[in-house]
What we know:
The chain has 440 residues and is an alpha+beta fold. The protein has 2 domains: 274 residues, no CATH class; 85 residues, no CATH class. It is built from 11 helices and 8 strands. Strands 2-3-6-8-7 form a 5-stranded mixed beta barrel.
Amino acid sequence: MGGGPVGPVTSPRGQYTHCVDRKDYKGNPADWGFLDVGVPSRLAAACDYLLGGKLVCLAGGGDECVIGTVVGIEEVGFQKPFPKDIDNDFSFNVLVIPFATGDFANYLNAPPPAPAQPDWEPHRIKADLERTPLGFLLHDPTPTPTPLPAPAEPVAGRNLDGYGVGYRWHAGALAVDHEKQDNLNKLFETATVWTTSGPPDGQMVAVPTVHCECEGSRIFFVCLAMKPFLDLLQLKPPGGLPSPGEACHAVSKWLPWPIDKIVDAVCSLVEDAVALPIALAIAPAVAAAFASAWEAAQAYDDAFVTGPVSRQITLGEAVIVSGRWVWDGGHAGHTELHPVKTFQRVRLPAGYAGPHDPRQALPPDVESGLRDFHERWCRLVRQAPPFDPFDPLATVGAVVDTLTPEQRDVLGRQRRPEDGWTLHPSVDGCVPSREPPPVR
């Protein structure tokens, strides 16, 4: 691979979410009507939403793989004030091969466009990338027969927005604007139209990316700590039986309009009225459990999950990243890899990190070469057993049961003495042992 891999296939520990089919997406509970559900039920639904409800499976819930350059890094807590910082994922943004960030200066150096639809409008740039071999990762592979649902922050006429990183023109080159990493619609809102014969300092262009999220544990552990209290507030019986409020709302679904809405409102008001005195009585215990789970999860992640991962991702380096391919409906709706399951630092062959003009079609031989390159190296990454830098022997015991047949085969070959060299087989390797010939 243009000089060979320069890092192991690393598997981040944090994997706490799941995705749902697009027909099962229910939207953000924060957007539900005030009387549609009681406060305790709404909080419980918020946990379900954050841990799986907001992620819609693409490609049947399977994994995908991207090869490209890290063009943006979002540290834990990036632009998330309390309580949004309950989401303590570490994220980074990958520009797909064969492009480099400097290639996007072509949009600024073009003749002055029509103001209503400028050449550097982020969605037009995204459309240019979608036509390239890895561009399929930026859009919905199955728009019909069931389109993607409306996201939490809908954009008129668009359920699939896109994600990107803002790069600004300065001193004759493009430099990353760390604070401009978001859905493309928001990046467009902050851009400025240039009207001179060339790009002035400060002019921004959006670089569309594949958003990659390495999951932290805070949502999972906070919701786990809050579950007994929320069950109590809902008077939920043990054994997974529905609470009185859930049963009441279930009955309302069978009633005609507007009676169903009236019954829903009564159910919600009764649930809140019953929950209020209980909430006041257990408030100190709830606060202590919440604070303990919040801080403990962050300390654990800093030491063993997102902390180690963040120290291995560097702006400008080439990577192969695999993870579950999903549409995130929690924002304006974009595709992403969430959670990241593996990543590896690599060296790209010449011409696989620019220069290419994204506005122009790639030559047919380059396109076919990129597809073969992507298929071959992503297949090899899938064959690699999980590697935890904090526990290199983690692929023993129960973990082995989760390996694919290909991963088991690779693991077996890695454990052979003759394959255990570190520097070079001629330096610290050994000759494989052979059975003696049969006695005649």
